[in-house]
Structure formats: C-alpha cells, structure tokens
Fold this sequence. Notes:
This protein is mainly β. Helix content is 1%, strand content 53%. It has one helix at residues 8-11, and strands at 40-51, 65-77, 82-94, 102-104, 108-116, 124-132, 148-159, 162-174, 182-195, 201-211, 220-229, 234-243, 251-262. Strands 1-2-3-5-6-7-8-9-10-11-12-13 form a 12-stranded antiparallel β-barrel. A hairpin with a 7-residue loop joins β5 and β6. The longest helix has 4 residues, at 8-11. The radius of gyration is 18 Å and the shape is globular.
Amino acid sequence: MLRMPYLIFFLSVLSLTISMPAYAGRPLVTEDVDILSPGDVEIELGVEYLDSPGIGFSARETDRKFVKSPVLGMNIGLGEIVEIQADFDMIYLDQAGISNEYAHGDLRLWTKILAVEESDSRPGLGMRFGSKLPNAEDEDGRGTDETDFFASMLLSKHFDNFYVHLNLGLGILGDPNQTNSQDDVMIYGLAFELPLEETFLTLTAEVSGQAFSNENNNISSARAGFRYDVTEDFIWDVFGGAGLTDESENWSAGTGFTYRFGAFNFSP
Length: 268
C-alpha cells in the first residue's frame, strides 16, 4: 500500500526561486546523465539510518534498525561518454536474535554511458547498467546472497536552471527462496534539483524505488535534502526520507561528503 501523505514533505520545495546550475549526486539516488571528465574521480563517504527497512522476498514485518556506516562510493571518468561506478556499505543491524550486529553489505558495480547530450530542445539521454554482488549475509536480511542485474535509461533536462532527472529501467532480482528463479521489477527515479539564488546551497527532492514485483519487493521512498558546496570540489549533503510502501523503511536520514579530483591523464 502506498503511503501518499509522505509525498508532501518534498513537493513543497518546488516553489523556491533558483538561478544557479546544478548537478546530480549525493544525496540523490536517481542518476543524472552527466559524465565525469576523463581522469576525474569522485569519492563519496556517508552514513545513513533506516527505521524498519523491509527484507527482500519476505512479506513479514520486522522491527529492526539499519545504520549504514560507512557508505562508500567511487566514480571514475574513463572517457567523454563513459563513467564507471562502485558503491559499498557496512551495516550495523539492531534486530532481535541477531548475533553479528555489524557486518558488510553488498558491493554494486555500474557503468554509465552518455548517449545524447542535452540541448535547448531535448533532454540529455544516457544508460546505466550494473550488478549487485552477493556479499552481504542473507540470514539476517542484510542481503539475499543472490546476484542482481539492473539496466536503466537516464534522462536529464534543465528548465531555467531547474534540473530534472528521470530514470526508468529493469531489475532482475535473484530469488533466494527458489532455485533458478527470479523477480523482474521496474526500477525508477524522479529527482529535482533547485539551486538557491546567490548561495552555495542546492535543494534536492526525489521519489525512487522498484515496482511490479511478484515477491514483496515493491520498495519506494521519497527523499528531500540539500547539498552545500564547501568548495568547488568538496560537497556536504544531508537528507531525510520516508518509505511509500509497506515493504519500505518507515523513515530514513543521512549525511555525507563528496570529493572530486583529477587522478590521472586519460588519452583515448
């Protein structure tokens, strides 16, 4: 069941006045089409809290608390149209009957490709595909011990410097309860960025998740937050969110940093 009242907390930011360029990244989950310059690297470091997140392929409701610390990410520009990405987290789990409270989560590897650059008359178009590897322990609901595959189409467009991103794609989730079985879901994200006039602050809002699951994997969340440019290459972010379906977390919050630097010279 969809928890529609939670949408109100991020829709209110759409009325703010903006006039500065923006780009996607933490704290957004929705991906933009922009590619890092060749040889540039982004390092992301954060911490997140989730209250009673769902367990994959399970309809049971469990009173548990997730603390992801640290949340690690790395993005590397490999060319004018290609970027590779990786993210990983360590998870502290507060749940009855759990002996190993602090353990690793899953590793996720991605490739993002810019297909069409944005113009005045059309959005930018890209693709992103990747896999979640079965690193997390599945006995306590940190993961499923299955390899999942994802592929998405990315769209991004400026509207008078108001930046909008749309992701639509397919997720193929390995089923830990049945051999040689899977759950095919639609994955989606819709995000907005609103840089505030004459400040270094950008407000963000999004809805993202997966739908049309046959195995209790209809996960959807809304988030609102901000990004503050400490320097041109060092960014601090904060977000708060709420689950929109019964399989999602009740609420979430987090903060983190992104640091961008030129790591190497790239000559194709």
